[in-house]
Amino acid sequence: xxxxxxxxxxxxxxxxxxxxxxxxxxxxxxxxxxxxxxxxxxxxxxxxxxxxxxxxxxxxxxxxxxxxxxxxxxxxxxxxxxxxxxxxxxxxxxxxxxxxxxxxxxxxxxxxxxxxxxxxxxxxxxxxxxxxxxxxxxxxxxxxxxxxxxxxxxxxxxxxxxxxxxxxxxxxxxxxxxxxxxxxxxxxxxxxxxxxxxxxxxxxxxxxxxxxxxxxx
Length: 217
Known about the structure:
Blueprint: E1 6-10, H1 21-29, H2 31-42, H3 48-56, H4 64-72, H5 80-89, E2 94-101, H6 102-109, E3 118-125, E4 132-134, H7 146-154, E5 161-166, H8 172-177, E6 180-183, H9 185-193, E7 199-200, H10 204-215
Parallel strand pairs: 1-2, 1-5, 2-3, 5-6, 6-7
Antiparallel strand pairs: 3-4
C-alpha cells in the first residue's frame, strides 16, 4: 500500500482557542440578538448561515477595531504550538476552517499564522454603518460549509485521510462525513446522539498522543 496523504482540518474558536472567542465577541457587541439567536443555533432550529449573518450585521462597523482587540487576547489551547511542530516534522498540512471570521483568526494567532497551511472562513466589510458579511463558502444551511472547503482543498492537495478537530455545531456536518474526528464539548454531544465514533480531547497534547499511536501507525 502506498503512502497515505493526511491533512488536519481544524476549527478555531473553542478548538484552537481555549475559550469561545467568537461567541464572546457576539455576546459583547450584539447582546440582545445573541441571547435570542445563539441558543437557536445550538439546538439546530436556526441555521448558522442565517443566524451568524443576523448577529454580525446588527453590529456597527465602528466596533470592529474593538472586536479585533478582544479576540487577539484569547489564550490558545495547551499544546497547540507543539502539535504544529509535530505535524511540520512529518509534512502534514494543518488547515484552519473557521465558522467565524478569518481576520479574527489571524489577530489571535499572530506569528503562528505563518505555520498554518491555509485559513478558510468568512470575511467582514466594514465600509458601511454596520458590518456586512461575505463568505465564499456558503452552502445549504452553512455560512462556511466545511465539506465544501474540504472538496476545494482536495482539488489542489492530495488528501486521502482528512483528520477533523472540532468542538461545536459548525463542525458537525464535516465530522459526519470524515473518517477521523477529534471532538469535545457540544460536538461530542451531537456525535454521541448520532452514534458517530470520535476521539475525545481536551488539549493538543492528547490529540498528538492519539495521532501518533493510532493515525500514523
